[in-house]
Amino acid sequence: DSGVTQTPKHLITATGQRVTLRCSPRSGDLSVYWYQQSLDQGLQFLIQYYNGEERAKGNILERFSAQQFPDLHSELNLSSLELGDSALYFCASSVGSYRGLDSPLHFGNGTRLTVT
Amino acid sequence: SQQGEEDPQALSIQEGENATMNCSYKTSINNLQWYRQNSGRGLVHLILIRSNEREKHSGRLRVTLDTSKKSSSLLITASRAADTASYFCATDNTGNQFYFGTGTSLTVIP
Hints:
The complex is a heterodimer. Chain A is 0% helix and 52% strand. Chain A contains no helices and eleven strands. Chain A has strands at residues 5-7, 10-13, 19-24, 31-38, 42-50, 53-57, 64-68, 74-78, 87-94, 106-107, 111-115. Chain B is an all-beta fold.
């Protein structure tokens, strides 16, 4: 058990809808990362938050947004969903710092999003 | 484009044999990490190697890093059926962007 909790585990929704994915990081971890994993794109880095502030941004679409709350949990909001957004969305946490991947990432088991 | 690319894409070996996977990346990095993913599950951290290190060991795992060639290798010795999984390298660059490679799918046949 990594200590990272993601909810829900599965989500099925229709095109054009909006969903929110939730992540509780491991106790003591200040950084939260969001990744998207699909068969054709592999594991894509979306965004990182550190202690409530956005720290790094990857290939995150404008239709997607995220935030990290004062209690350090994070939410990833996906709107105007398209069929191509169907994927496994992972949250990871780390003790974190400003110097990149200098501590291990602890991954949750993901949220499987299916857009129909 | 992705920073890291693993090679081979798939590897099948007999239990007890050694497995070697390679990772190549494109730009200068601060750190490189290796992860394992069992089907449909979250990734599990295996080992971290910093840019000023050349080799690290952890149990049956040995990782090397050659920054001049922008490559790393992961060696699993005396493989077990439980090692069957996908293995990914992850790199960062000086711009704090984080990338995972495409992964090597390892099958260990009992």
